[in-house]
Amino acid sequence: MLLSQLSNGAHAVVQRVLPSSADVGAATLRRLGELGFIAGEPVQVLRRGPGGREPLAVQVGETLFALRLLEAQCIEVQAMDVCVN
Amino acid sequence: MSQSLGVEPTLPIRCIALVGNPNCGKTALFNLLTGARQKVANYAGVTVERKVGLVHLHNGQTVSVVDLPGAYSLTAATPDEQVTLEVIEGRRAGEDTPDAIVAVVDATNLRMNLRLVLELKRLGRPLLVAVNMADVARAQGLKIDLARLAIELGLPVVETVAIKHNGHAQLLAQLEQHLAQPWPSAPASTASASSADLQREVRRILALVAPLAPTLGRFQYRLDAVVMHPVWGLVVLAAVLFLIFQAVFSWANWPMDAIKGAMAAVGDWILAHMASGPLRSLLVDGVVAGVGGVLVFMPQILILFFFILLLEDSGYLPRAAFLLDNLMGKVGLSGRAFIPLLSSFACAIPGIMATRTIANWKDRLATIMVAPLMTCSARLPVYALLIGAFVPERRLGGLSLRGLTLFGLYVAGVVSAMGVAWVFKRVWMKDGYQPLMLELPPYRRPSLRNLAQGLWERAHIFLRRVGGIIFALMVVLWFLSTYPAPPAGWDAAQGPAIQYSFAGMMGHALQWIFAPIGFNWQISIALVPGMAAREVVVGALGTVYALSGVDASVADALSPVIAQGWSLATAYALLAWFVFAPQCLSTLAVVRRETNSWRYPLFMAAYLFVLAYAAAFATYRITLWLGG
């Protein structure tokens, strides 16, 4: 599943980073990797911005990032436990 | 000092560069190392800040230190990161290649920070690792085996606490030691490593060095639950903004009055001690008035920057951007535009300078373009004069009608900025999606030393850059409004002297343009010197109506004169004009500097003029129609 599909509070592990739409360039994908969205890294969606859609506050490793929906859709994850609905 | 990449440096080490992730406390460490002995400028050709300072070692030697912009990796994604990479590799023209690199890492986030260290190591340059914020890590119960870290990295490692008085002792000792003997450097590696490869190595090292991964304190999560809450977060944000506005507009009054008073005293002193003549006029009306016009905004700008630095240091600002990203995204701006636009309420100039934090060029340009629509403090004297003269002191449901009018003018600015940004992004710069990818760093207690040093820097930059521009313009405008002098035999009964000057001629010519929106020739003349700085319009109106004295008394004397002489429609049209007011040359000069092109400032002036004219025209006609 995609990082964008996780509910608030859910834990997961990054599987891979892949382009979600034509708007997302190679530079964005590379930067996601450089920020720590790398296979095997633990992630948690903490919350979403006002409106409940985007941006997403995502913790990867020990760092918190704000991602827009399109970036979050580029990250394929494996949900960890029962937190996921 | 310019060796090419990979060549063993000659001794002694004269220049070191600090490199690290954003938010690793690098700038605090730089401030601690160099104290007040630092120079802030721009890298040639780009608007990326360049900080250099000297560090004095205990043995009396000095080493120069460069604080390079924060970078997440050595594959540059922003102009800032590009500069960092070019300086390290010695490819930046006019910059000395640093003899050694100090990689600053956040002890509480080695997992991310060590990737950059591994990348730096592959450059094969002399490298030293400073594990910063070691105190915070210890407080979190995180134990880092620094000796083991040095072995695993194959690099010297020191511990630093950038916010403590002597927190850089180990770093200084290490620097001293390496002044005497060659700095170790790892063999250069040309093969590129992927983030995944680097992370594998980081995991291996971390397992040996700090097996117990730290977790963000519960405090951080609890605070975020409020600060980033969809409802409470916005309430907190509104309260913070209200406090800042309150501070900027009320705390600043006292020092502003003091500066005005001092300037008036200097002017009076010159008037009393110098014979009348062109030189006295230049000094009093040009130099003192010009410098005073800039200085008077210093308190507001310093108070605003105090809050911005405080919020920045504490980690709050990115959270505000997180809350507003969705809203600002609707009009095509990034949440990052929030900070520059907030600054623009004091003055568009620091606001436009603050757009440097926006990585995407088009986002940045759109933000620059709408920054002047945020009602800057220079418009306040004009608003105050017109509202005082034309809006009756009445109360509407407990609120002052004058206060409501002022508030309405601010709202008009914000609403039109949103409209303009929307049009820009849809029509002019068709571009779909822009990534956000904004780090939300842990909350930290701001350090007083950093606040003081940041304020000092901002004050310095503001005075040097803007003082120069406004000062030069003031002298030019003084010349335009003084020469040619009125003909022989002129006396004040024939009208003010300014109408014979170049500015007067321009004002009379401009009246053809401004008559349809209800401006008389006096207003048209006043708009000419008002190009330097908007608040000068008040003084210029005073000159035109043959009044004299210091600014405050001019406004007091002017109020009844214009209340009698102007129609309500004219006054409202002038208020509407000033919501958009295109005529601040120093803003345009800064836009020229920040965009490296005349295209954008010219476009900005044109679109603001059209909007101002249209708004004033509509206001004038509607007020006349309503019987005003």
Automatic annotation (TrEMBL), chain A:
Pfam families: FeoA (PF04023). SMART domains: FeoA (SM00899). The keyword Iron applies. SUPFAM superfamilies: C-terminal domain of transcriptional repressors. Coiled coil: none annotated. Keywords: Iron. GO terms for molecular function: transition metal ion binding. Residues 1-79 form the Ferrous iron transporter FeoA-like domain. This is FeoA. It comes from Albidiferax ferrireducens (strain ATCC BAA-621 / DSM 15236 / T118).
Automatic annotation (TrEMBL), chain B:
It comes from Albidiferax ferrireducens (strain ATCC BAA-621 / DSM 15236 / T118). It comes from the Bacteria. Residues 13-181 form the FeoB-type G domain. CDD domains: FeoB. Signal peptide: none annotated. GO terms for cellular component: plasma membrane. This is Ferrous iron transport protein B. Pfam families: FeoB_C, FeoB_N, Gate. The chain crosses the membrane at residues 231-252, 287-311, 331-353, 365-391, 403-424, 462-480, 500-519, 531-550, 570-590, 602-622.
